[in-house]
Design a protein that fits this description.
The complex is a heterodimer of chains A (113) and B (113). With 113 residues, chain A is mainly β. Helix content of chain A is 0%, strand content 50%. In chain A, a hairpin with a 3-residue loop joins β4 and β5. By secondary structure, chain B is mainly beta. Chain B is 0% helix and 57% strand. In chain B, the strands form 2 sheets. In chain B, strands 2, 4, 5, 9, 10 and 11 form a 6-stranded mixed β-sheet that branches. Chain B has a 5-stranded antiparallel β-sheet with strand order 1-3-8-7-6, with no helix packed on it. The chains are: A mainly beta (113), B mainly beta (113). Chains A and B meet through β4, β5, β9 and β10 of A and β4, β5, β9 and β10 of B.
């Protein structure tokens, strides 16, 4: 089954404790991205990757890091989480071409206390 | 950055009625896509309309696009309780080197049985 898998689904952590949210896709997609969703703001792109070892900042990259060492995986790293990073996070993937439909993971609800 | 807004923010209708949601965007686009999100879960692609198309159908969905007004509408006919979800429009512009989707703020649709 074609899917994007994120883990964990729910995470409560304390300020400053490094964490990683994993994302994996099985569709051989080149393009992967991370979004955060906040009430009234819709989805905003954090980082994206066009292929292995190619990543770039989205609209709200501050406080986040990513890596793309393999085509299927695109982890999101919060080196020192802060309460303003409490949000619902989504990983998405698609083929890198025009008119590409994006496939989304089920989301990770992160709370930073 | 947000591309635009959706209207209304929330919509409540009875089963069997039609639901219409509108999306406005700010910049030129190559295509516009609609996604559905069930409460707190990942987004699912519904339909894509190209900038040179004016109307597109898929099952009970009808999408229109008016590039002169920078707006789109999604019509769901004969709605069902299972259509209860948030609906987002997202635009793509290939001016940059990305597959970037820019999302609206969404419309929350509640279909009462």
């Amino acid at each position: 089954e074609a899917q994007v898998t994120q883990n964990p689904r729910y995470l409560i952590t304390v300020t400053g404790k490094k964490l990683t949210v994993t994302c994996s896709q099985n569709m051989n997609h080149e393009y992967m991205s991370w979004y955060r969703q906040d009430p009234g703001l819709g989805l905003r792109q954090i980082y994206y990757s066009m292929n292995v070892e190619v990543t770039d900042k989205g609209d709200v990259p501050e406080g986040y890091k990513v890596s793309r060492k393999e085509k299927r995986n695109f982890p999101l790293i919060l080196e020192s989480p802060s309460p303003n990073q409490t949000s619902l996070y989504f990983c998405a993937s698609s083929f890198y071409r025009t008119e590409a439909e994006a496939f989304f993971g089920q989301g990770t609800r992160l709370t930073v206390v | 950055s947000q591309q635009g807004e959706e209207d209304p923010q929330a919509l409540s209708i009875q089963e069997g009625e039609n639901a219409t949601m509108n999306c406005s965007y700010k910049t030129s686009i190559n295509n516009l896509q609609w996604y559905r999100q069930n409460s707190g879960r990942g987004l699912v692609h519904l339909i894509l309309i190209r900038s040179n198309e004016r109307e597109k159908h898929s099952g009970r969905l009808r999408v229109t696009l008016d590039t002169s007004k920078k707006s789109s509408s999604l019509l769901i006919t004969a709605s069902r309780a299972a259509d209860t979800a948030s609906y987002f429009c997202a635009t793509q512009n290939y001016g940059g080197a990305t597959n970037k989707l820019i999302f609206g703020t969404g419309t929350l649709l509640a279909v009462q049985p």
